[in-house]
Design brief:
278 residues; eight-stranded mixed beta sheet; Rossmann fold
Length: 278
């Protein structure tokens, strides 16, 4: 089993490579990592085409949902995007918060930050900022953010509880988040769990849906709602790289499900002792 540091280094390396890949390759694979599928296209991503602020150049095809669509961002809000990549969700959030608001993207891959800053400069956005940092220790002051969004990122983080604690810290009282992520129902085959590529590809780094929601609640958030849920079907030509024919048959006949969920939750206006939000 790899250590947390080794997993982080793996993700950083993979996503530096992914930043240079073609978008079509990213969307035909699992979060851009591992082998591409010839059976299906757009394994995980949803289409941003109808959302204001969308720019194809900033879309690397790495998401598993549309958190900005469900985030109830208002004019003048300060929005934080965790794992901001080339800036796609930040630019959609900017269209919603307007020129009087502010959007901050945090990513720990230097080449992603570089690409995002270039994309913002091309569009002369002076209220979109990208910061290099670890979302387990956000480079953000406490209680300054109105809305947090994130798209298929927390599943890559070994210490997910720490991330939710950090989200709680940086949100203003009454602030909220909308996060799209990959979760499981049932147990993955061990050969998938052990594969480093499938960790970087969002799957073996995912945890059980119930455990994910429990992490949110024990962190002190309220009004937890699943805004959208959809199954993710990994095609055989990807799974065969990690499973034997027998394992593949067992897996497909099991009750194991891989899902994309978009979750909403609020930071209470007033934190109670021992609630987890203080």
């Amino acid at each position: 089993m790899k250590t947390d540091k080794e997993l982080k280094d793996l993700v950083k390396q993979k996503y530096a490579e992914i930043a240079l890949q073609d978008k079509n390759d990213n969307m035909a694979s699992c979060c851009g990592a591992g082998d591409c599928s010839t059976e299906v296209y757009n394994i995980m991503s949803d289409s941003y085409d109808t959302l204001d602020g969308y720019n194809e150049e900033a879309d690397l095809g790495l998401g598993c949902g549309l958190p900005t669509e469900y985030a109830s961002i208002k004019k003048g809000n300060t929005v934080l995007d965790l794992g901001s990549g080339a800036g796609n969700d930040c630019f959609v959030a900017r269209a919603q918060t307007g020129e009087i608001g502010k959007v901050i993207g945090v990513d720990f891959t230097p080449i992603m930050i570089e690409k995002a800053r270039e994309n913002a400069e091309k569009r002369e956005f002076d209220n979109v900022e990208f910061r290099l940092g670890d979302i387990e220790k956000l480079p953000i002051t406490s209680s300054v953010i109105d809305v947090v969004v994130s798209n298929c990122v927390l599943n890559l983080v070994p210490n997910k509880a720490k991330v939710f604690q950090e989200i709680m810290r940086v949100l203003k009282p009454g602030g909220h988040f909308s996060i799209s992520d990959v979760v499981l129902m049932g147990d993955l085959p061990q050969s998938l769990i052990k594969q480093a590529e499938m960790y970087a590809g969002c799957v073996s780094g995912a945890i059980q849906k119930d455990a994910y929601l429990q992490l949110i609640e024990v962190s002190g958030f309220t009004d937890v709602i699943i805004q959208k849920e959809k199954p993710i079907i990994l095609p055989d030509d990807i799974l065969k790289n990690y499973l034997t024919d027998e394992e593949l048959t067992v897996f497909k006949n099991s009750n194991t499900g891989i899902f994309s969920i978009t979750v909403f939750a609020k930071k209470p206006e007033t934190c109670l002792p021992n609630s987890g939000c203080c």
